[in-house]
Structure formats: C-alpha cells, structure tokens
Write a structure and sequence with these properties.
The chain has 486 residues and is an alpha/beta fold. The chain has helices spanning 14-25, 38-45, 59-64, 80-89, 107-120, 132-138, 151-161, 180-209, 214-224, 232-242, 264-275, 280-292, 295-302, 318-351, 357-363, 374-384, 395-418, 423-435, 442-453, and strands at residues 7-10, 30-33, 54-55, 71-74, 98-101, 123-130, 141-146, 164-165, 169-170, 176-177. Helix 5 packs antiparallel against helix 8 (180-209).
C-alpha cells in the first residue's frame, strides 16, 4: 500500500470535512475515515470530488496510507468516542506516531490521554479548534498542546490552514505541554459565553428598555463595530437584527428565548472553582442560559411577581443611554477577559505550562468566534509586561475602565430601575469594585467562621500566616479547627 498521505482525519461531520478541504487547498494529501464508512464514499463523490483526498474503509487501511511519522487527527464527539478510537489506533501505530484530538475535549481528559500514550511512545496532541464551519474551511484558530515532540511534525500543516492576521501571522502556535491546548480552548469558550451574554443584555436594555426596533438595533451594532467593540460577534449580531423571513417579519423575534449549551462554559466555571480563580462573569453567563431554559416557570412567574413601578417607563436621553450601554459592554468585556486570564495564569502555574498569554491573544485574533480588535490590545499589554498579574492593571485597560465607568454604573442602575436583568453587566461591576477594594467585609465572615466552627482568622496587626482563635462566648473551647476548611 503506497504511503502517500501527509495526515489522516477521522470524523467526517461538517467540521471534519471542512478541515480536510482546507488542508487539501494548502497542498497536503489527506486520508479520511469515518465510523459510518458510507460517509467516506459520499464525501469523495461530492464535497471532495476533484481533490487529492484519499478515502479509507478501515483503520488498518487508513494507517497504511500514511507517511511516517504517522499523523492522525480525530474530529469526533468528545468523551468516550475519543478513547474508543485511541484504543483502536494504538495497536496499529508505532513509537513516534502522532494522534491529534481536535474535538472539544475536557482538558483533564487530555492530560490523562497524554500520560497514557506517552508511556506507549505515542505522541499525543490535544488541539483547540475554533471558528465553526466557516473557520474550519477557510482558516480556524488552532491551539495545539501536548507532547512537544509532535509539534515539528504538525507545525507546517497547522500553521498553513490557520487563519492569518497582521500580514500573514498564523493564528496558531504551540500552547504548552499535556492538556494546555484544550485548556486554552475551554477558556476561549467560557469567554465566548460571557461575550454573548453581555451582547444579549445590551440588546434587551435597548429593545425592552429604550424601545429600539430591529432596524435601529442593527444600525447601533453596526456603529459599535466601528469602535473598540469591533468583533465578529458584534458584526453577526448586526446581521441577525436585519434578517427577515419571506413574509417580511424579523426572524430574531420568532426565536424561542431558551439558550442551549454544550458544556464548555460549565467546564470553565468548574475549573475556576477547583483552582480558586474568581471567574464570576462567565459563571453568571452559564447560569443565565440555565435560567433561560426555565421558560414555562418564567412565563408563570411573570404573571405573579411584580417589578418596579418604573418598569418600561424610560424617559431619559435615549442617545446617552445607548452610549452608556456601549461603555458598559466594553468595560464588562475587559473584566470578562481579565477573569479568563486569571484562570489561565492560575492553572498554568499549577501545571507548570508556561503559557504565552500574548501569544494566546494572537491565536484568538482571527478565525475564532471571539476574534476582535480588542485581542490585539491584550497582546500588546503582555508584550509590554509579560509578568502582568491582571489585565485590568495594564495602563491601556485601566484607562479604558476609567473612561467607561460612569456610563457603566448608569447602565447597571438603569437596568435595576427598569427591572431588566443584566447579570453579567452587574457582576462585572461588582467584581471591579471588589478587586479595587482595599478592605472587604471578609473580616466579619472570618469572625463568623471562627465563632461557629473555630476556623481561625489572621489579624491586621500580626504577620500573614499567623492564625488565631477566640472563645467568643466563654463557653466554647480554645482548640481551633484543623480537620476541614468550610
């Protein structure tokens, strides 16, 4: 069997097909396989007709088509299917061969697979792939991590098919060891959750609160896309408001207000809890989707629970309110990304991944769903100070928050006055005020914990690391709690 293929791809759903065609466009010979083998023939007869793509009807045939070291990319459903294909492939491979998981796998699964395959001499890569179907076809953002020995063998392919920014710089570079690639993709998706919820809150404030119609909303988002909010999500939102059905009615108004999710936002929040990072805005975005799913309950509650007397009675300056909302969106976006980077910094230190934070911003500049002008500013911030502890402390973003602060606060106040929920706008402001607060009320919280559970506390007049316990009632003991921390 001639070993002519540069890389193999398993999984011919739309993303897989488009990645294959992208690779073919850039001169790479791709061998393909799908569990439902008929899909291979259908693909070759239709979408891949006239290309250099080679079909295989078994894994043995697929492996036999590959040049050494063999490179096999999986684009299958996350979870058990990935493990099943790895188990089937390993007996057919030899040390130095490469398996790439390009699906939305949980990064801790990637860590486990990386370790198991390393023992067998197989090089494992977990790569985030972002950009949806269009990105896969014409240039995604790629975030590969895992066994670094694999990178020289896949670098040319990955960087060729990736999106390009800044006169040809690929939105793809090596992220780090073990599960680093899928971890960074997970955080990307969490930030995406935040971005989408923030935009949706701006929409509801302007439509329900200010009374803007869909044409006015489309114009507003088009204008915003010429500002510092310039991004893919703002752009497509302006398109959504313009889209009409055959009868001339706006489609967006007919879509049921229940949002789905595939789990990556939840993973981000759970990871933040596990590692002690305050990713509060993304958490609110996840919970907002969950609340949206309670449609029947919400409809019933709307007939029983009263809102403010001012509900639906905005009487101020509409133009100023729109500008305030724009500023709130920008400031909240800064907070969301700052929190995402806090999580990446925390996990990077624990796993010793040495993530390149400026490089990650560059990888997200093009191809992916959160691509925006804003990411260039993040890249610049970390170029100026690679050891930056928090994005909000960079002078550019500090100034941006200062400039947006009054409009941001007015927006949150307006939402409360009108009874319009803005969980992420409000959460972002609460985080900002908490982060800039030199003394929080946690001293009282610690006193309560020590009172009921002898959990101890530190003192402002003593060195950090010294812990004290008080017998608050005269009836408690003098022994502090050491068994657990609650």
């Amino acid at each position: 069997m001639p070993q002519t293929a540069d890389i193999a791809l398993i999984g011919l759903a739309v993303m897989g097909q488009n990645i294959v065609l992208n690779m073919n466009d850039h001169g790479f010979v791709v061998a393909v396989y799908n569990r439902t083998v008929s899909k291979v023939d259908d693909f070759l007869a239709n979408e891949a007709k006239g290309t250099h793509v080679i079909g295989a009807h078994s894994l043995e045939e697929l492996v036999g088509l590959l040049k050494r070291p063999r490179r096999i990319m999986l684009l299958v459903k996350a979870g058990a299917p990935v493990d099943e294909f790895i188990d089937l492939l390993v007996p057919l491979l030899e040390p130095g061969d490469i398996i790439i998981d390009g699906g939305n796998s949980f990064y801790e699964d990637t860590v486990r697979r990386y370790k198991a395959l390393k023992e067998k001499g197989i090089l494992f890569v977990g790569s985030g792939v972002s950009g949806g179907e269009e990105g896969a076809r014409h240039g995604p953002s790629l975030m590969p991590g895992g066994n670094a020995e694999a990178w020289p063998h896949i670098k040319a392919i990955f960087q060729s098919i990736a999106a390009k920014v800044d006169n040809g710089v690929p939105c793809c570079d090596w992220v780090g060891e073990s599960g680093a690639g899928h971890f960074v993709k997970m955080v990307h998706n969490g930030i995406e959750y935040g971005d989408m919820q923030l935009i949706s809150e701006a929409y509801q404030l302007m439509s329900t609160g200010l009374g803007l119609n869909n044409e006015q909303l489309a114009q507003t988002f088009t204008q915003w896309n010429r500002s510092e909010l310039d991004s893919y999500l703002i752009e497509i939102t302006s398109h959504i408001f313009k889209f009409k059905e055959a009868d001339g009615s706006y489609l967006v108004d007919k879509i049921l207000d229940t949002a789905g999710q595939k789990g990556t936002g939840k993973w981000t929040v759970l990871s933040a809890l596990d590692h002690g990072a305050p990713v509060t805005l993304i958490a609110e975005a996840v919970f907002a989707r969950i609340i949206s799913s309670l449609k029947d309950e919400r409809v019933q509650a709307s007939t029983v629970l009263a809102g403010p007397a001012t509900e639906g009675k905005f009487s101020g300056d509409v133009r100023q309110a729109i500008e305030d909302i724009r500023q709130a969106l920008y400031a909240s976006k800064i907070i969301s990304y700052a929190q995402g980077y806090m999580l990446m910094r925390q996990v990077s230190e624990e796993y010793k991944w040495k993530l390149n934070f400026g490089g990650i911003a560059l990888m997200w500049r093009g191809g992916c769903i959160i691509r925006s002008r804003f990411l260039g500013d993040i890249k610049t911030a970390f170029e100026h100070n690679p050891k930056l502890t928090n994005l909000v402390l960079d002078p550019f973003f500090t100034d941006g928050l200062k400039q947006a602060q009054e409009g941001w606060r007015r927006t949150v106040a307006l939402s409360a006055t009108l009874g319009i929920p803005t969980p992420t706008f409000s959460n972002a402001l609460a985080f900002y005020d908490s982060y800039r607060c030199g003394r929080l009320p946690a001293n009282l919280l610690q006193a309560q914990r020590d009172y009921f559970g002898a959990h101890t506390y530190e003192r402002v007049d003593k060195p950090r690391g010294e812990f004290f316990h008080t017998n608050w009632t005269g009836q408690g003991g003098s022994t502090a709690s050491t068994a657990y921390n609650a």
